[in-house]
Automatic annotation (TrEMBL):
Pfam families: Nitroreductase (PF00881). This is Nitroreductase. GO terms for molecular function: oxidoreductase activity. Residues 7-168 form the Nitroreductase domain. InterPro entries: Nitroreductase, Nitroreductase-like, Nitroreductase/BluB. It comes from Sporolituus thermophilus DSM 23256. It comes from the Bacteria.
Amino acid sequence: MDIYDVIKQRRSIRKYKADMVPRELVLKVLAAANWAPSGMNEQSWEFLVVGGSKLDELRDVCREVINLRLPPEAERTEQQKAFAHWYSTLGGAPLAVVQCCPRESDPARRKMVLESMAAAFQNLLLAATAEGLGTCWMTGPLAKQDKLHAILDIPESKEIVAVTPLGYPAETPAPVPRKDPELKEKVRFIGL
Ligand SMILES: Cc1cc2nc3c(=O)[nH]c(=O)nc-3n(C[C@H](O)[C@H](O)[C@H](O)COP(=O)(O)O)c2cc1C
């Protein structure tokens, strides 16, 4: 698939088939993430591929996060109920990928490292799309990062950056409209 098609076809997928993703395919997608550029070529991303009972624990943490954010269950709108279901199940995906990096105390270094993480995570998402897999970049679960550290046995020296379910999509969401698609406000050519 042409790179521009992959970029446009990537969607945040919030419903998945239960089918397991072969390990070789997971590694192929993560190898694409590993080809991302990184500040000072540090390549300091790490990926935890989470399944089985650990994924159940991860879903439980996500359920806690969404219950903190939404009104009590009895007062939820249909849309809020659907969003709570997505968070509590991670859409039924068979796997989740958790990205970590070294914890940086210096703000400039942390910015550089987090930008490198984002480059790698986007590579992961695009490679997954090209392979017919679904993803959804999530930072919401980090609201309970202490619990994530505990259940995934991540040391304090590492920062959890992002989470995505990984699996075969069971929905084809419509593209989310882009703001200023003609780039009249977002782009300025200077000196040209
Ligand atoms: C940094 C970042 C954090 C996000 N966190 C969440 C999240 O916690 N939960 C969620 O459902 N979607 C999350 N998203 C997905 C966005 O909601 C989604 O990308 C946006 O609505 C556009 O939809 P699209 O990805 O299908 O183009 C996140 C996306 C990014 C880039």
